[in-house]
Amino acid sequence: MGLSPMMKQYFDIKEQYKDCLLMYRLGDFYELFFDDALTTSRELELTLTGRNCGLEERAPMCGVPFHAANSYIAKLVSQGYKVAICEQVEDTKEAKGIVKREVVRIITPGTIDIDEATSANDNLYLLSVYITNKTSSIAYADITTGEFTALEVRDDHDNEQIISELSRIAPKEVIYFDETSSDFIERYSKAAPETYINQIDESYFKYSSCEDILKSQFEVTSLISLDIQDKIEVTIASGALLLYLMETEKHASPQIKHLTLKETGLSMILDRATMRNLELLETQYNQSQKGSLLDVLDKTHTAMGGRLIKRFIKEPLNNSNAINKRLDAVEVLVDLPLNRANIVASLKHVYDFERLTARIASMRANGKDMVALKTTLHELPAIKDELKHIDAPLLNEIFSSLDDFSSLEELIENSIVDEPPFTITDGDLIKSGYSTELDNLKLSIKDAKAWITGLEAKEKERTGIKNLKVGFNKVFGYYIDVSKSNLPLVPDDYVRKQTLVNNERYITPELKEKESLVLSAEAKINSLEYEIFKEIRASIEPYIARLQKASASVALLDVLTALAAVASRYGYVKPAVDDSNVIDIREGRHPAVEQMIGEGLFVSNSTLLDTVSRSMLIITGPNMSGKSTYMRQTAIIVLMAQLGSFVPCESAHIGVVDRVFTRIGASDNLSYGQ
Fold first, then answer.
1. Could you say which DSSP state residue 147 is in?
2. E-state strands within 110-177
3. Is 87 helix (H, G, I), strand (E, B) or coil?
4. What contacts 593, CB < 8 A, 6 or more positions away?
């Protein structure tokens, strides 16, 4: 007894994706078989069934509806599984024998972009690492936004700096291959056990392949255009990441338009323990945002602003000119509360610009995404109008980067209905007046639909059956529903179509004729609307780079207005930041603690440090007297100043600090040699 043709196809595909849970499309379900079914039924608490497969025993099987699969996939991926999506890739009506199927996508923790698995205020980074004896290189990308960054660190013999970088980036997935990286990966995985570590084949890290994919991705003839022509390790780390994305996505990633080469030393070094001890993003007590520095500063109104302010907190600047550029912008926004309020009013209507643009670029956007983009673009002129009257270098840059997208907004307004459905294949997407061909098709069935709409009232009157109903479903089409108690009143021209427990369903020759006309035309209408929608979506491609630039600027403006709002609300002051060796904080306060205990209850403290006569302070006192709070407060005020925020004190003079170490109490990581 041999395998059935369908199961033979399944095994042939599964053989190529042994490390994945294979979701195999059968009609309206994704089915999993054998070990994959056992694993999935256990993890998702699904009922395990069986299917005849040509073997002596039935194949274990479980499935999920394809239209609701995202939530199931998100749960599996969050538990560390890779999921391969296997779709039907030919029309069942045209298939000879078994329908052709292929894996169209592999979803991993670093490549999942479905809403159920992505937090609006968190980046979703996939990171590749390539380490040699002299140089460590990483590249990381967020496919939900199109961000792509590479970094090179030289002479980092113990990999301390590169581990700090990964702790700050917090990737969802790390890919690597070589033995040199193994020690590094082992150290990092202990420090960040929540990260999915994925050892992939060495072929991804071959220089020639990496060079070719980078040239292809960015449409350049030489790596000189990317400023990495002499950076072998950066080329390999970046290329390997793109090759991995090509393998998992099954196509290029058109939302990735730029490679940003990040320089080391431009931001303060903060290791994982320091970020945890200072409670920058969450508290140590219950891992809650409430009570953290992020909780104090995050008054943003957009998702991308929420992501950017986290990055500001994790990457305070080291360059005094860049810091003061941010501080000057915040100062202007503090001094102009009316302009700031008008900007905020517009930001409240801005959707997740970055992710919308990425979805459109990768051809995954639906009608609702397009309408959200239109709504967002509508707010940009009002934002520009407010910035036009504000003079600060950073705000002027934001003003210049907000292009005129009126033609794109008009295109979406004229083509996509105001309340489109989630699916893009079932029609009701395109406005009347946009396509003459589509309008003519809809007009051709207008009379037939009107006839069907009026049929129920007409048949009630003709037959005397008061509870007669005319209905429709996708399986049986149109029908006339009659309860069994009224069967004696059914006319001779009714033809039985379906028998139910308490009802009979009929059709008439004329209804069948109208049904044939309507269903045939509706299939053509839905198909045409889908093609028109794809054309509209593809026509946005030339705008992608400009949209990404604008979305980055809107995110920055959102963060700057948030910092200004915090400064105004809590009475923070502008710090003086320079390249001196002095930290002079007068009557400083811990920003999070003073919010938690109530206004006016925090006892302020001053701090004076330099590198000559006051390079160390020894702080003494009994338990619970505030020593740790004072230490954290000093570090946080310095950090706030360097990220571009006003600070909680009477005055502050901050000489730029390149690194903060904080090890407090029992949180010391002695087991890792710290």
1. E
2. 126-131, 135-142, 147-154, 173-176
3. strand
4. 602, 629, 633
Sheet containing 101-107: order of strands: 49-51, 59-65, 29-33, 21-26, 83-88, 101-107
SS3 label, residue 210? helix
The DSSP result for 399-428, as a single string, is HHH----HHHHHHHHHHB-SS--S-SSSS-
Task: Read off the tokens for 351.
Answer: 């959707």
Which residues, at least 6 apart from 531, have a Cβ–Cβ distance to it below 8 Å?
none
**Spatial separation of the C-alpha atoms in residues 555 and 551, rounded to whole Å:** 6
Query: Distance between CA atoms of 133 and 159, rounded to whole angstroms?
Result: 10
**Burial label, 260 (beta-carbon count in 10 A; 0-12, 13-18, 19+):** exposed
Nearest to 377 by CA among 551, 145, 497, 136: 551
- Could you give the angle at the alpha carbon of 194 between the alpha carbons of 189 and 200, nearest 5°? 60
What pTM value is reported for the model? 0.88
HSE-up of residue 47 (Cα within 13 Å, Cβ side): 2
Predicted confidence band at 673 (pLDDT cuts at 50, 70, 90)? very low
Q: Which residues contact 561 (CB under 8 A, 6 or more apart)?
A: 333, 340, 343, 344, 347
Phi, psi angle pair for 537, to nearest 5°? -60, -40
DSSP-derived 3-state class of residue 133: coil
Burial 568-603 (b: 16+ CB within 10 A, else e): eeeebebbbbeeeeebbbeebbbbbbbbeeeeeebe
> pLDDT tens for residues 559-581?
999 999 999 999 999 999 999 99
What tokens appear for 47 in the block? 């009922």
Virtual torsion, Cα 330, 336, 338, 339, nearest 10 deg: -60
Average pLDDT over the chain reads: 90
